[in-house]
Automatic annotation (TrEMBL):
One of its GO terms (cellular component) is trans-Golgi network. One of its GO terms (biological process) is positive regulation of amyloid-beta formation. InterPro entries: GSAP_C_dom, GSAP_fam. The keyword Transmembrane does not apply. Keywords: Signal. This is Gamma-secretase activating protein.
Length: 831
């Protein structure tokens, strides 16, 4: 299935039958598309298509058959700049037109059609481009026009217009138009129409330097960037990118000419992509300079079927989050710009997945984000990633790297919708065990959280983790990649907003920060374990109170979200451990953000942190709800009178994996999780497995579940065995709370236990009031006796030996004696 889908953008209805095909010649900043066609008398027409209103507008007509090279209209649509070829070389020789220049560049008043001015009449090719002020601004009396010449310079004309009678707009200055040089001696230039900036390369000594000029709406232009590139350029003719589209010339593109493009992303990414000549026939090489990260990566792809007649040139497309390197019939590499460090965050597609219908194998350009122009046919398309195809790709994937790349793309780039998220959860729940190098549950939680949180504030993307996977050493079949450190670009902008500010902060974090600024939970785990072990009486310290207060805030914050009905019994009980973890996470995440976002107010950070932890719990809840839906479980999973079904068993397994995923990253679980998990365990597992899970700490004995179990189960032999096994595993404090729910002689054990304890306390004048350390999974033989011996041993360990003279009289002796005596009374043989 094709991952990339195209949608034709221009729909023109009013061209008559005799006219020729349309060619797109330019796309202006407001998204309007300029196109030309030949009319009946071989007239050359120029039209404008508005993507928003889907309206066409006729701009101008030449009563000649002209080859338009470049064309631009100002934002008020009062002036049209056109550059065209007057004659071909052959015509010139044959018709003795030596005195006539080969190319002509005109500035035409079109509101209404009026004067025409010649801007250039030269033998070298010229491209024109009006500057567009802020998109919101209405009309202005000043237009600025860029003119790029094959003679390796770019200049800017200032054109003042005045409105004469009845909206007639004419150029004010009758003499020479004021002009300024923007760049000289360049060998390559690219116009970024959306952001109104010009990238260009000048050879400097032995290296090439990439520069950028930013045009501001009111000021003049400023040079804002300089960066060295280690790209060798053999062809020194000027190459222009996105200065309109001259389909005739672009079709004749020399195979050895420089194929280089700059791409920027909203998040402050700046990449230079170029394809490199390779002498090996079945191999292709391209290189991406991640200027915002400080490295370049060179990819080499071995081609399956090397077809020599095929143009071996990679096309680069801008999809904002990704740059696509595309070789028709071979591969489509979606290169992640935001997180380029791990290869498994980029999708490398071949075969059917890599096919892009309608895109020809000749010259392609990407004039705008998510737009592609077929320079041969002159048509323009919107490009997007199909989430259906992405899901299909995920389902068919054979490698972990593919799965990770697809998950990453779906969760972070495509902007996951509820439906897509549901599909992903279902995939995860069914295909958990196919992933070996990463945990898809962890990846889902971390990536979804990142995607939900980052838009909240600038720079948060550098502080929150976006993946559960910190290292990946796998390979992607068919591609090799070499990474080199490069020098960082020098920015000449200060206090700027938008892209340059984001790029600047990206560069700052490469320059100064530890590579992993992302929040990490290893401190959290240590602190959590420490606090969990705290004794009851220490739980009242201010520190702990504060932590638990945090957790309360998270839970009540979550309550204010109007979310769908909750899965019982989640969020319906207290879970001290999980609340501790939530509270700690709040406090540590807050510290982390405070450290790096000093200019942000405490209130805002508190808000972000609460959102983060609440979203985390909500995601886990959402995941469980979807799994419930998928397996059609009902609330009866929490009754103990029946055995669980196969679906319940599957869900029990998924819950165990969620638990494992959360433990692995020290993420809090919604309170009630353990109750539900244990409930399913009791229904689904055979007794010995259940007990094994309890003893190994997978299942937790929660008060709610144990109480229900004791209350609801009758005293058949099997149930008694179960209840007895559970009772003996309860920590003492919990045991005290629930014994009353089981009306059974076994309770005598506990009454006896308590009695011994009280008695001993009296005896020792309170010296053994310290509770005996709990022993989990005690070998259960004779409970009151075990308790007694434990308690005695505790006293012994304090150094209180009542009978110091008689060495052999100790706890062990008491235990042995008691057992022997019992055996004798029962008439059993004691060995
Ligand atoms: C799980 O993977 C298999 C094959 O790997 C696929 O056929 C199936 O559709 C996947 N499940 C879901 C729910 O996507
Ligand atoms: C990548 O950068 C390194 C270091 O500057 C340079 O040596 C290498 O030639 C670059 N790779 C490409 C393909 O330009
Ligand atoms: C546990 O935390 C307390 C209080 O912060 C501290 O005094 C103690 O040293 C910590 N113990 C361990 C084992 O880290």
């Amino acid at each position: 299935m094709q991952i990339i889908i195209l949608c034709l953008l221009i729909l023109i209805s009013d061209t008559s039958e005799n006219s020729s095909a349309l060619y797109v010649v330019n796309v202006e900043r407001n998204g309007k598309i300029i196109y030309t066609w030949k009319g009946n008398q071989r007239n050359t027409h120029i039209g404008l298509y508005d993507r928003q209103t889907k309206q066409n507008e006729h701009l101008y007509m030449f009563e000649r058959d002209l080859h338009i090279i470049s064309c631009s209209v100002n934002s008020e649509r009062t002036l049209l700049a056109v550059s065209f070829r007057q004659y071909t070389e052959e015509e010139r020789v044959s018709r003795l037109l030596q005195s006539v220049s080969k190319y002509l560049t005109l500035l035409i008043e079109i509101h209404p059609i009026n004067n025409v001015r010649v801007l250039k009449a030269v033998d070298s090719c010229v491209r024109v481009q009006f500057l567009y002020p802020d998109e919101g601004r209405c009309t202005s009396t000043e237009s600025r026009l860029l003119l790029a010449s094959e003679d390796k310079y770019i200049e800017q004309f200032d054109i003042h217009v005045v409105a004469e009678e009845e909206h007639k707009v004419v150029i004010q200055n009758s003499g020479q138009l004021p002009r300024a040089r923007v760049a000289d001696d360049l060998i390559w230039a690219q116009w970024d129409m959306m952001e109104q900036r010009l990238f260009y390369i000048v050879p400097k000594e032995s290296r090439n330097t990439l520069k950028c000029v930013q045009f501001y709406p009111d000021e003049n232009f400023n040079s804002v960037l300089e960066s060295h590139l280690d790209i060798s350029v053999h062809d020194t003719r000027l190459k222009l990118v996105n200065f309109g589209y001259d389909y005739c010339q672009d079709r004749e593109v020399a195979p050895k000419s420089l194929n280089l493009q700059v791409f920027t992303s909203k998040a402050g990414g700046l990449c230079v992509c170029c394809s490199l000549a390779s002498d090996i026939p079945d191999e292709i090489t391209y290189s991406i300079y991640f200027l915002h990260k400080g490295y370049n990566k060179t990819f080499t792809v071995s081609l399956e079927r090397a077809e020599t007649h095929q143009l071996k040139e990679v096309a680069f497309l801008n999809l904002d989050y990704y740059v696509a390197a595309y070789l028709p019939g071979q591969f489509l590499h979606l290169l992640n710009i935001q997180h380029p460090d791990l290869l498994c965050y980029s999708l490398f597609l071949t075969g059917e997945d890599a096919r892009v219908d309608m895109l020809p194998s000749c010259s392609i350009q990407s004039p705008l984000v998510s737009t592609v122009l077929d320079c041969c046919a002159g048509s323009i398309y919107a490009v997007s990633i199909s989430d259906t195809a992405l899901l299909q790709f995920l389902r068919n994937s054979k490698q972990d790297s593919e799965r990770l790349a697809a998950l990453h793309c779906a969760l972070l780039c495509v902007g996951s919708t509820t439906d897509l998220e549901t599909q992903i959860i279902w995939w995860i729940s069914e295909n958990l065990s196919t992933c070996h190098t990463f945990d898809p549950i962890q990846e889902f939680i971390i990536a979804s959280l990142y995607c939900r949180m980052c838009p909240e504030m600038h720079n948060l993307d550098k502080l929150l983790p976006y993946t559960s996977l910190l290292d990946w050493i796998g390979v992607i079949p068919g591609v090799t990649c070499a990474t080199d450190i490069i020098s960082l670009p020098i920015l000449g902008v200060q206090n700027s907003k938008g892209f340059w500010d984001k790029l600047n902060s990206n560069l700052e974090s490469v320059k100064y920060a530890e590579p992993h600024l992302h929040y990490h939970n290893n401190v959290l785990r240590r602190e959590w374990l420490n606090l969990s072990e705290e004794k009851e009486e220490r739980r009242t310290t201010a520190y702990l109170r504060n932590i638990l207060e945090n957790a309360k805030k998270v839970l009540s914050h979550l309550d204010t979200w109007d979310c769908e009905e909750r899965l019982t019994p989640l969020f319906q009980e207290e879970d001290y451990q999980q609340q501790l973890l939530m509270g700690l996470m709040v406090s540590q995440l807050k510290d982390h953000l405070m450290r790096h976002l000093q200019y942000v107010g405490k209130k805002k950070i508190d808000q972000i942190v609460l959102d983060y932890v609440a979203n985390l719990l909500n995601l886990i809840h959402r995941m469980m709800k979807e799994v419930w839906r998928r397996y059609e479980l009902h609330s009866c999973v929490f009754c103990f009178d029946k055995r669980g079904s196969a679906a319940e068993f599957a869900v029990f397994h998924i819950m165990s994996r969620i638990l494992e995923a959360a433990n692995g990253m020290c993420l809090p679980l919604p309170p009630g999780f353990h109750t539900l998990h244990l409930g399913l365990g009791v229904r689904c597992l055979p007794l010995h497995t259940l007990l094994h899970y309890i003893d190994t700490g997978v299942l937790h004995l929660t008060e709610v579940c144990v109480r229900k179990l004791l209350k609801d189960l009758d005293n058949t032999e099997k149930n008694e065995k179960l209840k007895f096994s559970i009772i003996t595993r309860l920590p003492e404090a919990l045991g005290q709370k629930v014994y009353q729910f089981w009306n059974h002689p076994v309770n005598a054990n506990f009454i006896a236990r308590k009695y011994v304890k009280l008695l001993l306390q009296k005896l020792g004048n309170g010296q053994c009031s310290r509770p005996v350390p709990e022993r989990h999974s005690v070998p259960v033989e004779f409970l009151p006796l075990n308790y007694l011996t434990n308690t005695l041993a505790g006293i012994e360990n304090q150094g209180l030996h009542p009978c110091e003279k008689e060495d052999h009289v100790n706890t062990r002796f008491v235990e042995e004696t008691a057992l022997r005596h019992t055996m004798m009374l029962l008439g059993l043989k004691y060995s």
